[in-house]
Amino acid sequence: MLASGGKSREEGKQKERQIHRKEAEEAIAMANATVKARYDERRQPLMVDKGQEIFLRQNRGYTLPDVVNHKFSNQRAGPIHILERVGTLAYRLEIPPN
Predict the structure, then answer these.
(1) Can you give the residue range of the structural domain that contains 33?
(2) Which of 26, 75, 89, 92 would bridge with 83, disulfide CB 3.0–4.6 Å?
(3) pLDDT tens digits along 20-78
(4) Are residue 37 and residue 62 in the same domain, yes or no?
(5) Residue 1 pLDDT
């Protein structure tokens, strides 16, 4: 009698675990959808055409040559001419030699 009662308890626990797991997966999916919707509201895709000129933002640690004071140096390099679009966010640029 204990064996059959133990099996039904285990089956009940497994069903309960499956229910909780399903609820957690649904909650995670809902949270992901909410975050994606908020991100998509504010994001504007960067669309640059061939022939336009852009300024490149320099990350921390990168500097332009011949700049003595790094604190007041330029944070952007340019204007740089776009030769062609290679991929979704990839462009071939005409980098000046200096």
Answers:
(1) 1-44
(2) 92
(3) 999 999 999 999 999 999 998 888 777 788 888 888 777 766 666 666 666 656 677 77
(4) no
(5) 44
